Amino acid sequence: MTSDVIVCGLGPAGRALAHRCLARALSVTVVDPAPDRQWSATYGAWADELPGWLDPTTIAATVDQPIAWATRTHRIDRPYVVLDTSGLQKSLELTGAEIVADRAVGLTPDTVALASGRSLTARRVIDARGIARSPAFAEQTAYGLVLDAQQCAGLEPLFMDWRADNGAPADAPRSFLYAVPLGGGAMLLEETCLAGRPALDSTALRDRLHHRLRSRGIEFTGEERVERVRFPVEGGRPGRNSFGAAGGFAHPATGYSVATSLSAADAVAAGAGTWPVSARAVYRLRAAGLRALLALPPTDLPVFFDAFFTMPLTAQRAYLSERTDLTGTVTAMRTLFGALPPQLRRRVAAATLGMRIRSRIRIPSAIMEE
Fold this sequence. Notes:
Oligomer: single chain
Shape: globular
Mean pLDDT: 93
């Protein structure tokens, strides 16, 4: 039997896409080696990124004005939400889909070869299996503890906190504290390496988090639930037959992909193109932003983020969330570049001058001008 759609991979992106295909009465087959595994990661998003069809009960907590600390504090006037991981998974119903517990080993636009030797066919095959790790890809890593909110009394939610109280040497690769409520009286405190090639390992991040918590008088027992994070922030391949991180939906400078995938699921289910010329240009500009971050000396990162969070909220939103807004992305990068100290501008320019954009896209030279 030939399905309308085969979705390979049942993480948040693949499950959301299969769910929206089913909502359109398409025949759907999903392939995953462990389709019933429970998700354990914490997913956050800007509230304005989420699609209207998403069940509002999947939001576990909302932070109206999260804080970013660089060399000084910045209060971001943009609500940030933390999703109920279990609730999100349950809400993306797959009733009516054929669920195949197997591993996809070969994909074409209309066939899937399985590890068992079986072959499946469909009018469309979409790869949502994520990105395989590789030494060539920059990664984001994190180590977190889930604490009772009372243990964190007085600690405001933090989108990122670059303050140097985690015990790391000044010239060591930097990491920041991410602190968000999970609902139900729990809070996640996570030491995060935004991007590295190679990224900081779990042991180093654990030691930094423990040092940071002790320095702030936050008590913990060592028996708390641990969350470990490691995933590539590059390596996706934009195109009609891939989706989620595998399809280039992960933001290379932040690693965020879940909200973008949720928002794009309806359009992909309908067969609409999600990679217009403007989106491909934005994708390349964001990749240039990742190159700049990787090239910055550790001591310059807080200065860079001071400049970023000083920008107007519209510019921040354009760079972080608007994957098809080429004009807004160019404006944001130009604004950020102009706000950086001269020495830092030179480093950013050296890291990004090699970016290539299709000839149909004209990137103003002012991006690299003072």
